[in-house]
Design a protein that fits this description.
The chain has 162 residues and is mainly alpha-helical. It contains seven helices and no strands.
């Protein structure tokens, strides 16, 4: 399959994934008052997508040779912003791991895409499966009593882990 077809397919998938991310997290970021984090992730994804597509469609060798560091860097920046926004050391650590991997990529010639993809996937799986530290819950008027209690329970779980 040609790079152009792959770029078109992955671009469509990235746009769909970004739209789904916005829909699924909109209420949470509103409650946590970190909507700006969501907007930053959308911008980072679009910047990465545009640079990747321009590199492929216009044959920009410098961009194509640095796709892995580009995406690891964008992800690291997004994790840093998210970690600062929700005051999470675990998410900040994910950003640090992404940055460190950028410096390790030259030692894995020929395996850069596998290493970069693996770091991204493993980070997402770890953050999705385990409780991570976060600031105290915000009492938001739009939440039902049940939702506020759930927030308190989640906060207690996070405190027990830290």
């Amino acid at each position: 399959m040609s790079w152009n077809i792959q770029a078109a397919l992955w671009s469509a998938l990235t746009l769909i994934g970004t739209a789904v991310m916005v829909v699924w997290t909109r209420f949470w970021v509103k409650v946590e008052q970190v909507s700006w984090v969501l907007y930053c992730w959308v911008i980072l994804m679009l910047v990465g997508l545009v640079l990747t597509d321009l590199g492929i469609f216009l044959g920009w060798g410098n961009v194509l040779m640095r796709l892995c560091p580009l995406w690891l860097g964008l992800s690291a920046f997004g994790y840093f912003l998210t970690g600062l926004g929700v005051r999470s050391r675990a998410i900040l650590l994910a950003g640090i791991v992404h940055l460190l991997c950028i410096f390790l990529l030259p030692y894995f010639c020929g395996w850069e895409f596998l290493i970069a993809g693996g770091v991204m996937v493993i980070s997402l799986l770890i953050l999705a499966e385990f409780q991570w530290d976060m600031r105290s819950p915000i009492s938001y008027d739009a939440l039902t009593l049940e939702q506020k209690q759930f927030n308190q329970q989640q906060h207690q779980l996070r405190r027990m882990i830290v």
